[in-house]
Amino acid sequence: MDKFIYLDNAATTRTSPTVVEAMLPYFGEYYGNASGIYSIGVKSKEAISESREIIASTLGARPEEIYFTGGGSESDNWALKATAEAFCTGVRQNDQAKNHIITTRIEHHAILHTCEYLQKQGIEVTYLNVDENGLVRPEELERAIRPGTFLISVMFANNEVGTIQPIREIGEIARKHDILFHTDAVQAYGHLPIDVEELHIDLLSASAHKLNGPKGVGFLYIRRNLRISSFIHGGAQERKRRAGTENVPGIVGFGKAAKDAFGTMEKRSAYETKLRDYLIDRILREIPFTRLNGHRTKRLPNNANFSFQFIEGESLLIMLDMEGICASSGSACTTGSLDPSHVLLALGLPDDIAHGSLRLTLSAETTREEVDITVEKIKRIVERLRSMSQQYEDFCRRM
Ligand SMILES: *Cc1c(COP(=O)(O)O)cnc(C)c1O
Q1: Largest CA distance in the chain
Q2: How many angstroms is it from 30 CA to the middle of ligand 1?
Q3: Strand 180-184 to 203-207 pairing
Q4: How far is the CA of 154 from the centre of ligand 1 (A)?
Q5: Best exposed site among 199, 258, 265, 277 by fewest CB in 10 Å?
Q6: Does residue 184's CB lie within 6 angstroms of at least one atom of ligand 1?
Q7: 324-361 pLDDT tens trace
Q8: DSSP states of 286-339 as a string?
């Protein structure tokens, strides 16, 4: 493939060569089942334990609180469905029945669609609004709490607009009312410091491929002594809570990716933030009728999301692709559909402006030169698309 500029790191990242190298022996050499008693099985078991310890230490958690899964979506499904099961039926049937979840309108579809599924099972869900920057208002969250609320699920940082939520305040509210607190930290884990004790987090989802690890492996942090049902029934793996022969190479890759990500976090974050701000400043200064979506400073170090008035985001993406630039209109799931992003609509953007949006997400490998090339191309493409827009012509005539 020709050289291209990859600016879609919120959708997925490149598995780093050091991660691939760490994984390789667990395909060919140490292929033993981690439940086996022969030595190559023991080698797999030890490798899983090591990854679990690395990951636990990055969160201020204990190794036995980390459960490996098949990715972020699975972790989100588990957190919601299994707490619902534990509180609404089964193990909690003698307690006062609880049937209410509080979440937000800007969650990933792994949360939103799971909530819709649970609503069909009779569970009630409150979807909190956010302010124009995408922030949850803690007072509004507290007002939404009812006697039947058993779970608050608020994402750590948004995958489309990058806004970082007031997680500590939310955790404190949950703790004060004795309600479980889950956070979808798939965008934040490996990019921001997280301490589950300090932030009062009971459940946390993460996924390896968002931090230069392999695809198809994630974890769910489950606070010790928490009553939650098993997710995949079968063998005794993951303390009998998530059955299935372990994805040993994936788990090893996740451990290595976490170690690398936390080791380089400060430096990487400073680099990305600087480059992000340079990109944002140039776009806003050099392209008229453009807005930045999401909070100016409370945002992921690598995220920039813009709306360009008078253009279609899809056309912009296609033209950028022809120029060798990989970007996104928001989330991978909405790309290709004509619906504007649910996140941008929740921020209060009118339909037509939400349609003209572009998400650029950087990595530590992105260079300033690549950003400069990208800005120049966006400038030219936006100008060209606007020159073909009737709406823009009408607007200019009125000015
Ligand atoms: C990518 C993402 C997910 C889904 O993770 P997968 O590992 O791809 O299943 C969930 N939530 C957020 C916020 C994400 O960015």
Answers
A1: 79
A2: 29
A3: parallel
A4: 14
A5: 277
A6: yes
A7: 999 998 644 444 556 789 999 999 999 889 999 999 99
A8: HSSSEEE-S-SSSB-TTEEEEEETTS-HHHHHHHHHHTTEE-BSS-TTTTTSSS
Q: Residue 55, Cβ neighbours under 10 Å: how many?
A: 27
* 273 contacts: CB under 8 Å, gap ≥ 6: 301
CB of 104 closer than 6 angstroms to any ligand 1 atom: no
Q: What is the C-alpha separation between 305 and 159, in angstroms, rounded? A: 10
* Whether 333 is catalytic: yes
CA distance 241 to 234: 9
Per the prediction, the chain carries an average pLDDT of 94
Strand, coil or helix: 122 = coil
Cα-to-chain-centroid distance, residue 18: 23
Burial of 178 (0-12, 13-18, 19+ CB in 10 A): exposed
Q: Are the beta carbons of 140 and 130 closer than 8 angstroms?
A: no
161, 253, 264, 260: which is closest to 209 by C-alpha? 253
**Helix segments in the chain, DSSP class H:** 17-23, 25-28, 39-59, 72-88, 109-120, 138-144, 167-176, 237-240, 248-286, 313-322, 342-346, 351-355, 368-387, 390-398
Please give the helix or strand (H or E) that residue 151 lies within, else none.
strand 149-153
Residue 51 has pLDDT above 80, yes or no: yes
Environment class of 31 (CB within 10 Å of its CB; exposed 0-12, middle 13-18, buried 19+):
middle
Residue type at position 57: S
The DSSP string of 246-282 is: --HHHHHHHHHHHHHHHHHHHHHHHHHHHHHHHHHHH
